[in-house]
Amino acid sequence: RALSMTALIAAITLLLSTGVRAFASHTPFIDSHLIPYCLPIALPSFLGAVLMGPHTAFFLSLWCGFALAIAFENMLILVLLGVLSSMAVVFSLRQVHKRSAFFKSALAVGGGEILVAISLAAFFQRPPSILLAEAGVGVVSAQATGLLVLFLIPLFESIFRVTTDIRLLEY
């Protein structure tokens, strides 16, 4: 059951990321440098941490980061974002007792994406406008991923007959 859940989480992440990339590449107001920050790279971390535990979440997120980097023409920033987002989620979602914990954890993921944007802006000497755009898109994407997780967790609980702390608190 854990292998099926892991495969489904990875498939959803890869499909959503491919869809977001296709949409963003055909949208005139989204520059190509913003695409890595638009992707739901933290999705496997969130779902893995709640459904399977922190260790599985970390390795699942790392694998998805590498898979996305390879699929998107060796975009190694996705590996970096995957590692930072998984660390932020794993450390901030130790025990989930309220649904608001997902949004707090998403803020931590957004903070990690801001750090990546600052680091890359300093390294490549990008202007502040690009830095602000990347940071803003990263925070919004992280919050959207946290919201998506709230919708996906009940589906995974019912499909795989898993009981999470959130479900226990609802009763």
List keywords for this structure.
single chain, mainly alpha, 171 residues
Outline of the structure:
With 171 residues, the chain is an all-alpha fold.
Spatial separation of the terminal alpha carbons? 24 Å
Q: Give the uncertain stretches in residue-range form.
A: none
Q: What is the alpha-carbon Rg in Å? A: 16 Å
Name the average pLDDT: 92
Measured by DSSP, the beta-strand proportion falls in: under 5%
Tally of helical segments: 8
Overall geometric form: globular
What structural category arises from helix and sheet content?
A: mainly alpha
Multimeric organization: single chain
Number of strands: 0
- Which series of helices and strands comes N to C? HHHHHHHH
Report on the biggest sheet.
none
Helix content: over 70%
Structure, described:
The protein is 79% helix and 0% strand. The chain has 171 residues and is mainly α. It has helices at residues 2-25, 35-38, 43-51, 54-71, 77-92, 100-124, 128-160, 165-170. It contains eight helices and no strands. The two termini are 24 Å apart. Helix 1 packs antiparallel against helix 3 (43-51), helix 3 runs antiparallel to helix 4 (54-71) and helix 5 (77-92) packs antiparallel against helix 6.
Tell me the layout of helices and strands:
Elements: H1 2-25, H2 35-38, H3 43-51, H4 54-71, H5 77-92, H6 100-124, H7 128-160, H8 165-170
Helix pairs in contact: 1-3, 1-4, 3-4, 3-5, 3-7, 4-5, 5-6, 6-7
